[in-house]
Amino acid sequence: MAAKSPERFDLARDTIQFVLNGADVTITPTDPTMTVLDYLRLGRRLTGTKEGCAEGDCGACTVLVGRLVGDEVRYEAVNACIRLLASLDRRAVVTVERLREPGGALHPIQRAMVELHASQCGFCTPGIVMSLTALWLNHDAPPAKERIEDALAGNLCRCTGYGPIVDAVARAYAIGAPADDPLRAEGADVARRLKALAGLDALSFVADGRRYAAPTTADDLAAAALNRPDATILAGATDAGLWVTKEMRKLPAIISVGDVAGFDAVENDGGVLSLGAGASLTACRAALGAMHPQIDEMLRRFGSEQIRNMGTIGGSIANGSPIGDLAPVLIALGATLVLRLGGERRAMPIEAFFLAYKKQDRKPGEIVEAILVAKPPAGALLHVSKISKRFDEDISSVLGAFQLVRDRIGVVTEARLAFGGMAATPKRAARAEAALVGRPFEAASAEAAAKAIAQDFSPLDDWRASARYRAEVAANLIRRFHAETQAGATLRVVAPPREAAHA
Ligand SMILES: Cc1cc2nc3c(=O)[nH]c(=O)nc-3n(C[C@H](O)[C@H](O)[C@H](O)COP(=O)(O)OP(=O)(O)OC[C@H]3O[C@@H](n4cnc5c(N)ncnc54)[C@H](O)[C@@H]3O)c2cc1C
Ligand code: FES
Ligand code: FES
Fold this sequence. Notes:
By secondary structure, the protein is an alpha+beta fold. Helix content is 33%, strand content 21%. A hairpin with a 2-residue loop joins strand 6 (203-207) and strand 7. Bound molecules: flavin-adenine dinucleotide and FE2/S2 (inorganic) cluster (2 copies).
């Protein structure tokens, strides 16, 4: 086991340093759990960034966070309300105030919003403008309508309606060009400053009697976690941030994974996909989504763009949620979970990690390090369905993820039917799987598997969905899976008319 090295953190840098709207900022922190939103509004009086829900849902607090990708700064939309200020260390932040152009002219996105009357009460508008600015900065040509709608899925507007807001994007590209954006023009300078910040010591401070540490190497992370098993491991804060804003928890010690070199690595050797626990859901969407269009679609509907930019695959597994969307998919894919405790690693089939409601097979001080996903064998059948009340930004009532491996003559040799929302943990349907193995995947065996769901699960009954609804949906997903695999069937990728979804 690696030696404990708490001293190393005590000797590290204790000021948070970042670039805010083009200016260098150094802060001596007073509260390890201060949010970015509170800092901006209360500390800096940058009140253009609004607070709506304080839980990552409404997007009123959207700001851009830039980080180095190679030699360039890549800006992403994030929710300032649940992101901790200390996690801005070594990053560049842009708020709506920065969009004002020299002489006070509006940014093309803002001007287009005004010209198309895309704002009424205006409270949601700064967040919408920031989400669209992220889109603008990352697309030289006007993006497709669906892409615009995805960018807006995490921005709630209840009075204007989304039509003019979506149309404003095309208008902005008629007014100007992202290539001429001042944020692009200053990109090289900001990149240079971020590179300088990247060379600084690890951040570690005590404020208000509470520790925040952001190690920069995997060994230091493992040592810190081992040394402070009581610490909250902080990744994207899309769960942990709400403990602060909604439960008013103080969190006595935080160890952030956000600065650990390589912890977010996504590597594909052609046979096995290796996802570092710190890989964002956006990065995971690109890698896992390439395996199957329904996985891509599920990740497109995971939270919002802001949530996917912040949230990580490690956080979504470590939290042990019975309604998390990724766990059933990874179980169906037969993924392997790699855990690290100090210098020791162990690996397990990912389903073995989930022991009971919110109880995982994770020792004190142990961290989730990586998830390994083998490429499905040739001829395997895959299916993923997320069932939720809303298309966008909603937690699943039921999520079904299935993989059938078949031999050369089509007989099912392995069935993995995993569900979220059906039990206290993400779980496989053992009896339904048994009904499928040893025979071709046909209507009769699919029906037997669908019927077996009633023996596999006694689902929970809550305001999101009744037990009966969940059981029926789960059985129907197996029927749908079979229908999709019939010759001539079209693979379902849910794309309801967005006008209806946004009405
Ligand atoms: C508005 C909103 C929408 C959402 N929508 C969805 C959705 O559609 N589907 C869905 O499944 N979830 C959703 N979530 C939940 C959340 O986004 C996911 O659970 C997310 O993946 C958590 O990852 P994170 O990196 O933000 O974790 P954090 O909040 O940083 O941490 C979550 C937990 O994991 C632990 N942890 C994190 N990383 C590690 C590690 N490497 N090792 C050990 N422990 C670790 C933390 O200590 C904490 O207990 C949503 C959340 C919000 C706020
Ligand atoms: S205030 Fe609603 S998402 Fe942040
Ligand atoms: S203009 Fe967005 S809520 Fe009113």
